[in-house]
Design goal:
The structure is a single chain. The chain is α+β, with helices and mostly antiparallel strands. It has a domain of 74 residues: Nucleic acid-binding proteins (OB fold (Dihydrolipoamide Acetyltransferase, E2P)), CATH 2.40.50.140. Helices cover 33% and strands 25% of the residues. It has 6 helices and 8 strands; from the N terminus they run βββββαααβββααα. The longest helix has 16 residues. The chain starts with a strand and ends with a helix.
Length: 231
């Protein structure tokens, strides 16, 4: 299989063999792909400085097995000026994407959401609401979609004025004072805000706690390196 000029972003790159790179990229039509960039670390490499995270690229490659061989990489725009918190948030999104997505599983909608996330981080928009929306769509793409409209096991709609305990792989359960701890509760208003994409500042803390619990549940005990780097 040969792929030409595919819109892509580099998620991660590491040294491979003597002078090459092994790249994990997010592409629009082919999903996450693993590519070998032969000689990319050489002094005279045509890709020197190009295969960097967050840069919008057009990648071309040939592929027979699980890994493809990069044949061309064209930068189509200037790299976004990510620094400080925006940079750490971008690295976090890249690591999450690599951990959750299987290779060669296309998610064009998620690709566009990722593109929008990078653009929002680059212009200095608040990072936390954008991250929560990206996490939600990433979980959906990975097959772990969240129930945000109805209480689990019923047809009752989530109420803005109620509090819930969100159970992974099930959904929100209405608070019962005798069994639910306050630190694990989330308001119906926050759940509905996440569903609509209109997240209010007052809900950021509880949504961040919710997504951290869910991500830890699905990824297991292996910590995210980007979170350690941020701290």
């Amino acid at each position: 299989m040969r792929v030409s000029l595919e819109p892509s972003y580099v998620l991660h790159a590491r040294p491979f063999q003597e002078s090459s790179l092994l790249i994990e990229a997010l592409s629009r039509s082919h999903g996450r792909v693993g590519l070998v960039a032969r000689g990319a670390r050489g002094v005279r490499s045509r890709w020197k400085g190009v295969l960097q995270p967050f840069r919008p690229l057009l990648l071309s490659w040939s592929q027979k097995g699980e890994l493809g061989t990069l044949t061309a990489a064209d930068q189509v725009a200037s790299p976004p000026p990510l620094a400080g918190e925006s940079l750490f948030c971008g690295l976090y999104a890249n690591e999450l994407t690599t951990r959750f997505l299987q290779r060669s599983d296309p998610h064009p909608g998620l690709f566009e959401r990722y593109r929008q996330l990078v653009a929002e981080l680059a212009v200095g928009d608040p990072a936390q609401p954008a991250l929560r929306i990206y996490e939600l769509q990433l979980l959906q793409a990975a097959g772990f979609g969240l129930q945000l409209e109805h209480e689990f096991g019923t047809s009752d709609p989530v109420r803005e004025d109620a509090w819930y305990r969100y159970v992974p792989e099930s959904g929100p359960k209405l608070r019962k004072y005798e069994e639910d701890r306050a630190g694990e509760l989330i308001s119906g208003a926050a759940l509905l805000g996440l569903k609509s994409g209109q997240i209010e500042d007052r809900h950021l803390k509880e949504l961040k706690a919710l997504m951290r619990r869910l991500i830890r549940f699905y990824l297991g005990d292996k910590p995210l390196k980007s979170q350690s780097l941020f701290h």
